[in-house]
Amino acid sequence: MSCWMPGCPALNMCRGLAALPITCLERAKDLKTRLGILLHKPELGHKTGSSSKLQLGSRRRDSSREVLEWRESFDQLLKSKSGVNAFHTFLKTEFSEENLDFWLACEDFKKTRSKTKLASKANRIFEEFVQSEAPREVNIDHETREITRKNLSGATSACFNEAQAKTRTLMEKDSYPRFLKSASYQDMSRQAASRGTSKRSHT
Protein backbone atom coordinates (compact mmCIF):
# COMPACT_ATOMS: atom_id res chain seq x y z
CA MET A 1 0.00 0.00 0.00
CA SER A 2 1.40 3.45 -0.84
CA CYS A 3 0.33 6.89 0.34
CA TRP A 4 1.63 10.39 -0.41
CA MET A 5 -0.41 12.18 2.27
CA PRO A 6 1.48 13.49 5.31
CA GLY A 7 0.67 11.55 8.50
CA CYS A 8 -0.63 8.55 6.54
CA PRO A 9 -0.58 5.42 8.84
CA ALA A 10 0.78 3.24 6.02
CA LEU A 11 3.60 5.70 5.35
CA ASN A 12 4.44 5.88 9.06
CA MET A 13 4.43 2.05 9.28
CA CYS A 14 6.78 1.74 6.30
CA ARG A 15 9.13 4.31 7.84
CA GLY A 16 8.99 2.43 11.14
CA LEU A 17 9.91 -0.86 9.44
CA ALA A 18 12.70 0.80 7.51
CA ALA A 19 14.14 2.13 10.76
CA LEU A 20 14.34 -1.41 12.25
CA PRO A 21 17.72 -3.16 12.09
CA ILE A 22 18.02 -5.73 9.29
CA THR A 23 18.56 -8.52 11.85
CA CYS A 24 15.12 -7.86 13.44
CA LEU A 25 13.41 -8.11 10.06
CA GLU A 26 15.30 -11.32 9.23
CA ARG A 27 14.35 -12.84 12.59
CA ALA A 28 10.70 -11.96 12.02
CA LYS A 29 10.78 -13.61 8.58
CA ASP A 30 12.53 -16.67 10.02
CA LEU A 31 9.92 -16.95 12.79
CA LYS A 32 7.09 -16.70 10.26
CA THR A 33 8.66 -19.47 8.15
CA ARG A 34 9.08 -21.76 11.17
CA LEU A 35 5.48 -21.22 12.27
CA GLY A 36 4.27 -22.06 8.77
CA ILE A 37 6.27 -25.31 8.76
CA LEU A 38 4.97 -26.30 12.21
CA LEU A 39 1.35 -25.62 11.25
CA HIS A 40 1.62 -27.84 8.19
CA LYS A 41 3.66 -30.60 9.85
CA PRO A 42 1.80 -33.92 9.47
CA GLU A 43 3.21 -35.16 12.81
CA LEU A 44 0.97 -32.75 14.71
CA GLY A 45 -2.20 -34.45 13.45
CA HIS A 46 -0.67 -37.93 13.35
CA LYS A 47 -2.22 -39.31 16.53
CA THR A 48 -5.69 -38.00 15.79
CA GLY A 49 -5.49 -39.22 12.21
CA SER A 50 -4.33 -42.67 13.30
CA SER A 51 -7.10 -43.10 15.87
CA SER A 52 -9.77 -41.97 13.39
CA LYS A 53 -8.37 -44.39 10.80
CA LEU A 54 -8.47 -47.20 13.36
CA GLN A 55 -12.07 -46.37 14.27
CA LEU A 56 -13.04 -46.23 10.59
CA GLY A 57 -11.28 -49.54 9.97
CA SER A 58 -13.07 -51.11 12.92
CA ARG A 59 -16.45 -49.84 11.67
CA ARG A 60 -15.70 -51.22 8.21
CA ARG A 61 -14.81 -54.63 9.67
CA ASP A 62 -18.01 -54.66 11.73
CA SER A 63 -20.15 -53.68 8.75
CA SER A 64 -18.36 -56.23 6.53
CA ARG A 65 -19.12 -59.03 9.01
CA GLU A 66 -22.72 -57.79 9.23
CA VAL A 67 -23.18 -57.84 5.44
CA LEU A 68 -21.97 -61.45 5.27
CA GLU A 69 -24.27 -62.42 8.16
CA TRP A 70 -27.35 -61.29 6.21
CA ARG A 71 -27.15 -64.43 4.08
CA GLU A 72 -27.15 -66.71 7.15
CA SER A 73 -30.83 -66.15 7.84
CA PHE A 74 -33.69 -63.72 7.26
CA ASP A 75 -33.65 -63.01 11.02
CA GLN A 76 -30.04 -61.82 10.78
CA LEU A 77 -31.04 -59.44 8.01
CA LEU A 78 -33.99 -58.03 9.97
CA LYS A 79 -31.81 -57.53 13.09
CA SER A 80 -29.48 -55.26 11.14
CA LYS A 81 -30.54 -51.67 10.55
CA SER A 82 -28.34 -51.40 7.45
CA GLY A 83 -29.63 -54.80 6.34
CA VAL A 84 -33.23 -53.61 6.56
CA ASN A 85 -32.28 -50.48 4.59
CA ALA A 86 -30.56 -52.53 1.87
CA PHE A 87 -33.48 -54.96 1.67
CA HIS A 88 -35.95 -52.05 1.49
CA THR A 89 -33.99 -50.53 -1.41
CA PHE A 90 -34.12 -53.90 -3.20
CA LEU A 91 -37.88 -54.29 -2.58
CA LYS A 92 -38.44 -50.87 -4.15
CA THR A 93 -36.98 -52.22 -7.40
CA GLU A 94 -39.65 -54.96 -7.27
CA PHE A 95 -42.41 -52.54 -6.21
CA SER A 96 -43.10 -54.59 -3.07
CA GLU A 97 -41.63 -52.45 -0.29
CA GLU A 98 -45.08 -52.22 1.36
CA ASN A 99 -44.51 -55.73 2.80
CA LEU A 100 -41.45 -54.61 4.74
CA ASP A 101 -43.04 -51.27 5.67
CA PHE A 102 -46.04 -53.15 7.09
CA TRP A 103 -43.78 -55.49 9.06
CA LEU A 104 -41.84 -52.52 10.48
CA ALA A 105 -45.09 -50.70 11.32
CA CYS A 106 -46.26 -53.78 13.25
CA GLU A 107 -42.95 -53.94 15.15
CA ASP A 108 -43.35 -50.29 16.12
CA PHE A 109 -47.03 -50.88 16.96
CA LYS A 110 -46.11 -53.60 19.49
CA LYS A 111 -44.06 -51.07 21.46
CA THR A 112 -47.08 -48.78 21.97
CA ARG A 113 -48.19 -48.66 25.62
CA SER A 114 -51.06 -46.16 25.53
CA LYS A 115 -54.44 -47.83 24.83
CA THR A 116 -55.72 -44.72 23.07
CA LYS A 117 -52.68 -44.59 20.77
CA LEU A 118 -52.90 -48.35 20.28
CA ALA A 119 -56.44 -48.07 18.86
CA SER A 120 -55.67 -45.10 16.58
CA LYS A 121 -52.43 -46.69 15.32
CA ALA A 122 -54.20 -49.99 14.68
CA ASN A 123 -56.84 -48.30 12.54
CA ARG A 124 -54.22 -46.33 10.63
CA ILE A 125 -52.12 -49.45 9.88
CA PHE A 126 -55.22 -51.41 8.87
CA GLU A 127 -56.40 -48.66 6.49
CA GLU A 128 -52.96 -48.21 4.94
CA PHE A 129 -51.86 -51.84 4.54
CA VAL A 130 -54.55 -54.45 5.33
CA GLN A 131 -58.03 -53.51 4.19
CA SER A 132 -59.10 -54.46 0.70
CA GLU A 133 -57.86 -51.90 -1.86
CA ALA A 134 -55.72 -50.14 0.78
CA PRO A 135 -53.24 -47.61 -0.69
CA ARG A 136 -50.33 -49.96 0.13
CA GLU A 137 -52.19 -53.26 0.37
CA VAL A 138 -50.07 -56.24 1.45
CA ASN A 139 -50.50 -59.65 -0.10
CA ILE A 140 -52.45 -61.66 2.51
CA ASP A 141 -55.41 -64.02 2.17
CA HIS A 142 -59.02 -63.01 2.77
CA GLU A 143 -59.31 -65.04 5.98
CA THR A 144 -56.29 -63.32 7.60
CA ARG A 145 -57.65 -59.94 6.50
CA GLU A 146 -61.00 -60.64 8.22
CA ILE A 147 -59.36 -61.94 11.41
CA THR A 148 -57.32 -58.72 11.57
CA ARG A 149 -60.44 -56.62 10.99
CA LYS A 150 -62.19 -58.32 13.94
CA ASN A 151 -59.11 -57.80 16.13
CA LEU A 152 -59.48 -54.02 15.72
CA SER A 153 -62.65 -53.96 17.86
CA GLY A 154 -60.53 -54.61 20.95
CA ALA A 155 -57.11 -53.56 19.71
CA THR A 156 -54.17 -55.09 21.57
CA SER A 157 -50.47 -55.18 20.69
CA ALA A 158 -51.09 -58.64 19.17
CA CYS A 159 -53.92 -57.70 16.79
CA PHE A 160 -51.65 -57.76 13.68
CA ASN A 161 -49.65 -60.86 14.66
CA GLU A 162 -51.19 -63.20 12.10
CA ALA A 163 -51.05 -60.71 9.21
CA GLN A 164 -47.49 -59.75 10.13
CA ALA A 165 -46.41 -63.41 10.27
CA LYS A 166 -47.93 -64.11 6.84
CA THR A 167 -46.18 -61.09 5.34
CA ARG A 168 -42.87 -62.07 6.95
CA THR A 169 -43.13 -65.62 5.55
CA LEU A 170 -43.87 -64.21 2.10
CA MET A 171 -40.76 -62.01 2.23
CA GLU A 172 -38.58 -64.81 3.60
CA LYS A 173 -39.65 -67.38 1.02
CA ASP A 174 -39.99 -65.07 -1.97
CA SER A 175 -38.16 -61.72 -1.81
CA TYR A 176 -35.26 -62.61 0.51
CA PRO A 177 -33.72 -65.33 -1.76
CA ARG A 178 -33.93 -62.93 -4.72
CA PHE A 179 -32.27 -60.21 -2.64
CA LEU A 180 -29.33 -62.54 -1.88
CA LYS A 181 -28.97 -63.27 -5.62
CA SER A 182 -29.31 -59.61 -6.63
CA ALA A 183 -26.38 -57.75 -8.17
CA SER A 184 -26.47 -55.15 -5.37
CA TYR A 185 -26.08 -57.72 -2.57
CA GLN A 186 -23.53 -59.78 -4.54
CA ASP A 187 -21.45 -56.63 -4.93
CA MET A 188 -21.74 -55.76 -1.22
CA SER A 189 -20.79 -59.28 -0.13
CA ARG A 190 -17.76 -59.36 -2.48
CA GLN A 191 -16.52 -56.08 -1.03
CA ALA A 192 -17.14 -57.34 2.51
CA ALA A 193 -15.29 -60.60 1.81
CA SER A 194 -12.32 -58.78 0.26
CA ARG A 195 -12.08 -56.48 3.30
CA GLY A 196 -12.11 -59.55 5.53
CA THR A 197 -9.33 -61.18 3.46
CA SER A 198 -7.31 -57.97 3.56
CA LYS A 199 -7.65 -57.82 7.35
CA ARG A 200 -6.42 -61.44 7.76
CA SER A 201 -3.42 -60.84 5.49
CA HIS A 202 -2.34 -57.89 7.64
CA THR A 203 -2.50 -59.82 10.92
Automatic annotation (TrEMBL):
<feature type="compositionally biased region" description="Polar residues">
    <location>
        <begin position="183"/>
        <end position="196"/>
    </location>
</feature>
<keyword id="KW-0343">GTPase activation</keyword>
<comment type="function">
    <text>Regulates G protein-coupled receptor signaling cascades. Inhibits signal transduction by increasing the GTPase activity of G protein alpha subunits, thereby driving them into their inactive GDP-bound form. Plays an important role in the phototransduction cascade by regulating the lifetime and effective concentration of activated transducin alpha. May regulate extra and intracellular mitogenic signals.</text>
</comment>
<dbReference type="Pfam" id="PF00615">
    <property type="entry name" value="RGS"/>
</dbReference>
<feature type="region of interest" description="Disordered">
    <location>
        <begin position="183"/>
        <end position="203"/>
    </location>
</feature>
<keyword id="KW-0597">Phosphoprotein</keyword>
<keyword id="KW-0732">Signal</keyword>
<dbReference type="InterPro" id="IPR044926">
    <property type="entry name" value="RGS_subdomain_2"/>
</dbReference>
<protein>
    <recommendedName>
        <fullName>Regulator of G-protein signaling 16</fullName>
    </recommendedName>
</protein>
<dbReference type="GO" id="GO:0016020">
    <property type="term" value="C:membrane"/>
</dbReference>
<dbReference type="InterPro" id="IPR016137">
    <property type="entry name" value="RGS"/>
</dbReference>
<keyword id="KW-0472">Membrane</keyword>
<dbReference type="InterPro" id="IPR024066">
    <property type="entry name" value="RGS_subdom1/3"/>
</dbReference>
<feature type="signal peptide">
    <location>
        <begin position="1"/>
        <end position="19"/>
    </location>
</feature>
<keyword id="KW-0734">Signal transduction inhibitor</keyword>
<dbReference type="InterPro" id="IPR036305">
    <property type="entry name" value="RGS_sf"/>
</dbReference>
<keyword id="KW-0564">Palmitate</keyword>
<dbReference type="GO" id="GO:0005096">
    <property type="term" value="F:GTPase activator activity"/>
</dbReference>
<dbReference type="GO" id="GO:0009968">
    <property type="term" value="P:negative regulation of signal transduction"/>
</dbReference>
<keyword id="KW-0449">Lipoprotein</keyword>
<feature type="domain" description="RGS">
    <location>
        <begin position="73"/>
        <end position="189"/>
    </location>
</feature>
